[in-house]
Amino acid sequence: MDTQKSTTPLPALTQTASFRLLSSDITTTLSTDAPHCLPLDIHNSKVKERRLLEPLVLQLLGIEDMSKSRWEQVEAIEALERGEGTKGREIIRVTSTADDDDSGTTVNKSGGPHKLSLQDARGTKVFGIELQEIKGVGLGMSIGCKFVLKNAVVARGVVLMEPTNSTILGGKIEAWHKAWKENRKVELKAAIEANERR
Q1: All residues at 6 or more sequence positions from 41 whose CB lies less than 8 Å from its CB, including other chains
Q2: What is the pTM (predicted TM-score) of this model?
Q3: pLDDT at 192 over 50
Q4: Which one, of 152, 158, 156, lies nearest residue 129 by Cα?
Q5: Which positions ≥6 away from 184 have C-beta within 8 Å?
Q6: Residue 94 has what pLDDT?
Q7: CA–CA separation, 12 vs 14, rounded Å?
Q8: How far apart are CA 123 and CA 148, in angstroms?
Q9: Across-strand partners of 50?
Q10: pLDDT tens, 75-116?
Q11: 3-state helix, strand, coil in the chain (%, to 5)
């Protein structure tokens, strides 16, 4: 094989490799060595603050807009299911096309701050809070999207995310994204009911 010349150009191979990495589950494709993962005691609430100095790759498992109540989010999902949307204060009929990836269960993509559920290559899950608006972070993000965190502060087990320490690489894990969209309304309602029982 060494004598055979590849006819595929290097930029095309690079793009293919990048696409495959961004659409894969990092728990199966990346190294689980200690410097490339979250600390094992990341959830220790006794540690007031620590910095993640090494660059870490994390993937998005879920996102929630903290500027809207859970009921507002459920109502927005139901309005889109009925084919309604808003333009300013006016309610309009929304038509979805076959190419529309977000048809049916996407709410307004703006807002924020956002709470992100993230996972590292070892499978450790952690919440991240968007302290300052990060371009590209919103409810329209794809589940499985990859982030690189460098020099981020973790306060009592929560990653404090800012544009200076968070870089979005992109990507999407199709099966996860579809399941998240389908179950989002049910999970929001369950959280509301659990809160009411308290």
Answers
A1: 47
A2: 0.77
A3: yes
A4: 158
A5: 77, 105
A6: 62
A7: 5
A8: 16
A9: 154
A10: 888 877 787 766 665 666 666 544 444 433 334 455 779 999
A11: 30, 25, 45
